[in-house]
Write a structure and sequence with these properties.
This protein is an alpha/beta fold. A six-stranded parallel β-sheet has the order 7-8-6-9-10-11, sandwiched between helices. A six-stranded mixed β-sheet has the order 15-16-20-17-18-19, with helices on both faces. Helix content is 34%, strand content 20%. The longest helix is centred in the last third of the chain and has 18 residues.
Length: 462
């Protein structure tokens, strides 16, 4: 077996490693393990075209692989590396644990092979905006920020590149999900950032307490020389981090005793002078001001000057699929918020518009109670809800007669209905509040398809 409990003693050369999952992170972990001298076997029960192409690539590299099954060969291992899509309560995990096989996540595994500083960002919402802004801030003569993690760039891929071409200025900026923290032992970011915590992924984690516990695992190895940048406006985070030994660095859109502060419609810098006016920031909504303050605080800890931070604040265009303007057709605006996969993100979206809204909700429910939206719908400008997908009926039942609602089968039908029912001045907002997996591979595919349908609508009106 491999001693995974002490990073300094880890040696995988000639060890047998099973990588469970052949998605982006699994295939990246397999390549990293192979490069480090391990005997690698990859297993995925799926049979898609993408998986078959990745399997062919593995075979050409001399890496063993199987698809369509988890055979007994996966248990002939000194170590398992788990992709985030594999739940910790799955049957194969239980059997591996019974066989005393050490199990680590891809994030944990990749961290063994780098000494570069890590900034890790997590939260229920806002983490993608935060890391993408932070990566732009952390580019200087002394720092070369490298973005990876839960943003489509596996940490293992980035670390493998560093091993092949060392760069001493590298700082990893990782977006971290709760799934990626289920199997860690040594993972330790120099700076950890918490944007917020609200109910999310309860269909996987079961309870809110378990979800919070997984989020907090990100900092369990930090010591008094490390930093935690956290949203002090979020009572769940403030309570969960109470008595942690790391250096606490709060950010807030309310308080003034923080590194950067929001006051009188301007953000003030570390010297107490105004850095930028809120009107000069492209991102809408109070939630984005919070994300900006999170990124800026972490960048400041890395020694980035206020002036450069302010330049990025003013020039950052936002993130695709998050309150993304698509088009205006016949006086109706279409907004793509496909990344809103939980109700808290929907609530934030509703607060971002003063216009009359047609809200498109639906997809695969992750354990959320749609009745929680009712007070936000009543306080906003929603005049119509179009529900679709697996959760369509559940949404209609929860909304009741609070606002007019229409149920359709799929997202394309929702777009068609929204176009026919919209009037000039409306905003058609896709903010699903659900996972995409009933109809799409991920929220990106959902957002891209939504935009394509809108672009086609625009063409028919030319």
């Amino acid at each position: 077996m491999i001693d995974i409990y002490h990073k300094a003693n880890i040696n995988i050369k000639n060890k047998f490693i099973s990588v469970i999952g052949l998605g982006l992170s699994g295939s990246a972990a397999a390549k990293l393990a192979h490069f480090a001298g391990a005997k690698v076997y990859v297993s995925d029960p799926g049979t898609s075209l993408d998986l078959n192409m990745r399997a062919d690539e593995m075979l050409q590299m001399g890496i063993g692989v199987e698809t369509g099954i988890h055979s007994d060969r996966i248990y002939e291992a000194d170590l398992w590396v788990i992709s985030p899509g594999v739940p910790k309560d799955s049957d194969i995990i239980a059997k591996a644990q019974k066989n005393n096989i050490p199990i680590v996540s891809e994030i944990e595994f990749a961290s063994w092979f780098t000494e570069s500083p890590i900034i890790a960002v997590t939260g229920s919402n806002g983490k993608t905006t935060t890391v993408k802004m932070l990566i732009k801030m952390c580019q200087s003569e002394n720092i070369l920020g490298s973005l990876a993690g839960n943003v489509g760039i596996p940490f293992s891929s980035s670390v493998l590149q560093e091993m092949k071409c060392p760069e001493p200025k590298t700082v990893y900026i990782l977006e971290i999900s709760s799934f990626q923290m289920e199997f860690i032992e040594n993972f330790r970011p120099k700076i950890a950032v918490y944007t917020n915590i609200s109910p999310e992924h309860l269909n996987r984690h079961g309870t809110m307490d378990e979800y919070i516990a997984m989020k907090m695992r990100m900092v369990e190895n930090q010591t008094k020389t490390d930093f935690i940048v956290f949203n002090i406006d979020d009572p769940i985070i403030a309570m969960a981090l109470k008595d942690h030994p790391a250096i606490m660095v709060p950010f807030s859109i309310i308080r003034s005793d923080t590194t950067f502060r929001l006051q009188t419609n301007s953000i003030y810098g570390t010297n107490g002078s105004p850095l930028i006016s809120v009107k000069d920031i492209n991102l809408p909504g109070q939630h984005n001001l919070s994300n900006i303050l999170a990124a800026s605080t972490a960048a400041h800890l890395m020694g980035i000057p206020d002036q450069h931070i302010a330049e990025i604040m003013g020039s950052f265009p936002g993130v695709e699929h998050r309150l993304e303007y698509v088009s205006s057709i016949d006086g109706v605006q279409y907004i793509n918020d496909s990344k809103a996969t939980n109700l808290d993100a929907v609530m934030v979206a509703l607060e971002s518009f003063d216009q009359s809204l047609i809200l498109i909700l639906g997809g695969q429910n992750k354990g959320a109670d749609f009745r929680l939206l009712l007070p936000h719908i009543e306080e906003s400008h929603v005049r119509l809800i179009i529900s679709y997908g697996e959760s369509g009926g559940e949404i209609v039942t929860a909304i009741g007669d609070a606002v007019r609602s229409v149920q359709v089968t799929d997202l394309k039908s929702a777009v068609t209905s929204a176009q026919s029912l919209a009037i000039p001045g409306d905003v058609v907002l896709l903010s699903p509040g659900c996972a995409s997996f009933d109809q799409f591979e991920n929220f990106e595919a959902r957002g891209i398809q939504f935009k394509n349908w809108i672009y086609n609508l625009d063409k028919t009106n030319d």
